[in-house]
């Protein structure tokens, strides 16, 4: 009987070790799977992020095409990610101005695109260094809405202007600014983008500015 008891205890101990080992392997497998899916989320977002600077470049140096193509691309990305069960949102401010002549009034055309997935309660654009400084304020901007406005500047030489952008919704807020480099005899496109991505296991966000010269002297 004692021998049988020792045998049974030995078998149970071996089974315990096997179960323990398999349990640890299962935990390792689950952790590896989680890491893999998080890396896939990151790769997905990085691929999206890398395409945005390319869209204006392939728009044939036309500021209207640059702006519209970028908006259409943003909507397209959202639909693609939605079909995968993922969430992609964006907020952008795109600016463009024609060929600058010294000491002559020039329009800075501004396009704001809300694709945050919710209404913007308050939005303010302030263009500094201009003469005089100017600002535009909006309220209750629906999701998937495009706004258009313009500011005027007049400069005798190359100068850096600044556009301040402040917005808030019921769940979040943001205050940003970006530089608009003006050069005499040149036309430029400058776009600010705030991209937000919710993957299967992780979320990612990036804010960046794209600057392209449309017309060179």
Q: What shape does the CA trace take?
A: globular
Termini separation comes to: 101 Å
Q: How would you sum up the major sheet? A: 5 strands, antiparallel
Q: Strands of the biggest beta sheet: in what spatial order?
A: 5-2-1-8-9
CATH architecture: Sandwich
How many beta-strand segments? Answer: 9
The number of helical runs is 3
Per CATH, what is the topology? Immunoglobulin-like
CATH superfamily: Immunoglobulins
CATH class: Mainly Beta
Helix content: 25-40%
SSE sequence, one letter per element? HHHEEEEEEEEE
Outline the structure in words.
The protein has 217 residues and is α+β, with helices and mostly antiparallel strands. The chain has one domain (35-215): Immunoglobulins (Immunoglobulin-like, Sandwich). Helix content is 35%, strand content 42%. The protein contains three helices and nine strands. The chain has helices at residues 2-51, 54-57, 63-83; strands at residues 87-97, 106-115, 120-128, 134-141, 145-153, 159-168, 173-182, 187-198, 203-215. The strands form two sheets. It has a five-stranded antiparallel sheet with strand order 5-2-1-8-9, with helices on one face. A four-stranded antiparallel sheet has the order 4-3-6-7, with no helix packed on it. Strand 3 and strand 4 (134-141) form a beta hairpin. The termini are far apart. The model is unreliable at 1-5 (pLDDT under 50).
């Amino acid at each position: 009987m004692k021998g049988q008891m020792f045998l049974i205890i030995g078998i149970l101990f071996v089974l315990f070790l096997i179960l323990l080992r398999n349990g640890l392997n299962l935990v390792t497998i689950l952790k590896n799977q989680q890491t893999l899916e998080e890396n896939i989320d990151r790769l997905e977002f990085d691929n999206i992020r890398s395409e945005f600077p390319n869209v204006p470049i392939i728009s044939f140096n036309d500021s209207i095409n640059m702006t519209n193509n970028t908006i259409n691309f943003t909507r397209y990305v959202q639909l693609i990610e939605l079909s995968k069960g993922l969430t992609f949102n964006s907020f952008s401010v795109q600016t463009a101005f024609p060929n600058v002549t010294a000491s002559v009034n020039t329009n800075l055309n501004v396009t704001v695109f809300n694709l945050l997935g919710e209404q913007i309660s308050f939005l303010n654009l302030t263009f500094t260094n201009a003469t005089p400084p100017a600002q535009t304020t909006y309220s209750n901007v629906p999701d998937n809405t495009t706004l258009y406005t313009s500011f005027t500047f007049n400069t005798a030489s190359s100068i850096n202007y600044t556009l301040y952008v402040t917005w808030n919704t019921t769940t979040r807020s943001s205050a940003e600014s970006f530089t608009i480099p003006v050069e005499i005899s040149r036309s430029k496109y400058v776009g600010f983008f705030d991209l937000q991505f919710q993957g299967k296991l992780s979320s990612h966000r990036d804010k960046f500015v794209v600057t392209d010269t449309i017309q060179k002297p």
